[in-house]
Each structure stands twice: as structure tokens, then as C-alpha cells.
Amino acid sequence: VKKVAVLGASGYTGREIATWLERHPSLEVDGFFSARVGDGPPPPELPFARADQPLDWKRLRRADGVFLCTPHGTSAPLAARCLELGLKVVDLSADFRLESEAAYAKAYDHPHPAPALLQEAVYGLTEHARERVAAARLVANPGCYPTAVLLALKPLLAAELVDLHTTIVADCKSGVSGAGRNPSARTHFGGVHENFSAYAVGTHRHVPEIHEQAGTTRLAFVPHLLPVFRGILATIYFQPVAGVKASDALGCLAERYAGEPFVRVYPRGLPELDRVHRTNECHLGAADAEGLVVLVSAIDNLVKGASGQAIQNMNRMLGLDETEGLL
Ligand SMILES: NC(=O)c1ccc[n+]([C@@H]2O[C@H](COP(=O)([O-])OP(=O)(O)OC[C@H]3O[C@@H](n4cnc5c(N)ncnc54)[C@H](OP(=O)(O)O)[C@@H]3O)[C@@H](O)[C@H]2O)c1
């Protein structure tokens, strides 16, 4: 049994990790910590708060691994300190997802807090980085939208089934938990209930992440806010190269993901959110539409899009079976 700690355990992803770790046979939690350092304002009282313990570096030293469930900008200095203590680090924030300091500063409006670590961080889209994740000290857990989009597109791009003379459109819809627990005018009940809206079109911070990992900028990303708590459905439209149909795309995905415990390719029909609800699975389907191929990818943003994938990565980093605690 290995010991892990959770920093920023009072937020949505921290709470989700706590739930899954309760059932994990080989990971024992040695601390749900707050990630606050110094005398800031006290954190709000929350019914599900697990981070009642202040950050205790001495206790952290006893752990084998740590999950950083903290905002971007906060994670990087914590990661640096945890690495010094010899812990394996899975960071759920965006701090180590982009390849360069310049790309990070542009997307996140502040200089990178620990640029020296950017090079060694491994982008943890597990199914596409298995060996590198196993060897890593620091894993950048992918963003929720990028997970849904990249799992669908990467095999098709690698097989050159997509005509990159035209632009791919990733039309994505997320439940409100994707924005974290702090309410805003857009995300509180009154703004979401019986409503549906597009937001951050062309400007969302996941654009550079998707572009870098897809290896192309010929992709327009349009996020929408769904009136549900959890789940992402990505509908991806692309022009295939001549002669390629949805059935070819499905064949390619089925071959690439054969034997994958957490990716399901539908031979017919399309994924829906309730089939992935509270699972670590990504469901993929495809259909033809007037010469375009339409892919549909569904995940639970809090599980495969965050905490589940984080555990999947930590399992690999600590030499456990990748599926432990997640089935
Ligand atoms: N929600 C998702 O679907 C999702 C998916 C993928 C990745 N992520 C990423 O995962 C991270 C956590 O997301 P979340 O949705 O769990 O956010 P959240 O619900 O807003 O929780 C944020 C956590 O970070 C702590 N925190 C906030 N500001 C802090 C600061 N200045 N110093 C130290 N700790 C601070 C909070 O603790 P207090 O109780 O002390 O405020 C809380 O525990 C973010 O980087 C997010 O981008 C989220």
C-alpha cells in the first residue's frame, strides 16, 4: 500500500478524488490538506470540506505521491516543494500542461511560477503517454475539454484521416462543475437553470492546450455551459480525406483503443452523458453528415476529465495497476 495526500481537498476535484480514494485498495490517504500558505482569509465553510487540516510539510514527507487540486498559479510552487520532498506529483491545474513559458504567460496572463519544471512535466493523457507517465515525477493532468477532444481526435490525426486543409470544429458542452466551486453570475443556479449558452468562443484557455497536443492549429473550439452538474459532450466536425467515412474513423478508433479499460468505441449509435456519469470512461462514436465526419465524445469532467484520470496517472507513477480503484 502506498500513501498519498491531497492538497486543495475542499474543491470539486479534491472532493471527487477523496470519494474514489475511499475505495482504492492500494492507495491510503495520509492527509486531505488545505493548500493555503500563510495568513490569507479563512476558507469558506463547506458541507463537504475535507481540507480541514492546514498544510503540514512534515507529514507530507511521509507520502509517496500527492494530488494538487489547486488553481493554476498556485500549483506550480507547491509542485516544486513536493518534488524536493521526493513525492510523485499529479497536478490537476494547467500549470504544467503547456510546452513553453511564453505560451503559458500568454494564456494565463502571468509569468510561469516554476519554468524550470516545464521540460520534465509529462502531459498525462494516459492512453497516449503510458510509459512516459510511469517514468515521470511530475504529471500535468490534462484539462477536461482537451481530454474529451484529444481522445477522439488523436488516433485519426495520427492515421491522417483528417483533411487539415479545412478547420476541425470542436463544439463542446460542459456541466457547471467544470468551473469549480466558486459561484459566478454565469455559473450560479439562476444563470444555469433552464439556460444554455456558448462562452469564451475563440479565447478559452484550453485552445492552446488542444492545439499543442493535437499538433495542429486547424481546430476551432467552442465551449458551451450545460444546465447539468457534471459531464462533457464534445461534438467534433471534420472534413475527412477523400474516400474516408465515419465507419473508417470508427475502425481506426476501435483498433487504437482495443483493450483499453477506460475508452469505449461504439460500433453503432452515439454516446450520451448519462452513460459516463461517475465513471472514468470516455465513450466515442461517429456518424456521417453531408460529407463531414461527426465524432461524439463523452466523459465525466470530474472523473476522466480530472480526478479519475489523476488517479489513473498516479497508479502508473507508483507502479500499481492502472485501473486500481477506478473500476
Ligand atoms: N472542475 C473540473 O472539472 C476540473 C477539470 C480538470 C481540471 N481542473 C483543475 O483542477 C484544479 C481544481 O479545480 P476545482 O474545480 O476543484 O476548483 P475549486 O472547486 O474551485 O477548488 C479549488 C481548491 O483550491 C484551493 N485554493 C483556491 N485558491 C487557493 C490559493 N490561493 N492557495 C491555495 N489553495 C487555494 C481551494 O481551497 P480553499 O477551500 O482554501 O478555498 C480549493 O480546495 C483547477 O486548477 C482546475 O482548473 C478542474
Would you mind describing this structure in some detail?
- With 327 residues, the chain is an alpha/beta fold.
- It is built from ten helices and 13 strands.
- Strand 5, helix 5 (130-135) and strand 6 (138-140) form a beta-alpha-beta unit.
- Helix 1 packs across helix 10 and helix 6 packs parallel to helix 8.
- Helix content is 28%, strand content 21%.
- A seven-stranded mixed beta sheet has the order 8-9-7-10-13-12-11. Strands 2-1-3-4-6-5 form a six-stranded parallel beta sheet, sandwiched between helices.
- The relative contact order is 0.15.
- The protein starts with a strand and ends in a 10-residue tail after the last helix.
- The mean pLDDT is 95.
- The structure holds NADP nicotinamide-adenine-dinucleotide phosphate.
Summary tags:
327 residues, alpha/beta, 7-stranded mixed beta sheet, 6-stranded parallel beta sheet, 21% strand, binds NADP nicotinamide-adenine-dinucleotide phosphate
- Main sheet specs: 7 strands, mixed
Kindly report the spatial arrangement of strands forming the biggest sheet.
Answer: 8-9-7-10-13-12-11
Task: Give, in order, the helices and strands.
Answer: EHEHEHEHEHEHEHEHEEHEEEH
* Helix percentage: 25-40%
Shape: globular
Mean pLDDT level: 95
Chemical compounds bound to the protein: NADP nicotinamide-adenine-dinucleotide phosphate
Number of strand elements? 13
Supply the number of helical segments.
Answer: 10
Kindly estimate the percentage of residues that lie in beta strands according to DSSP.
15-25%
- What is the rounded Rg? 19 Å
Structural class, please? alpha/beta
Distance between the termini: 18 Å
Ranges where pLDDT stays below 50 over 5 or more residues in a row are none
What oligomeric arrangement do these chains adopt? single chain
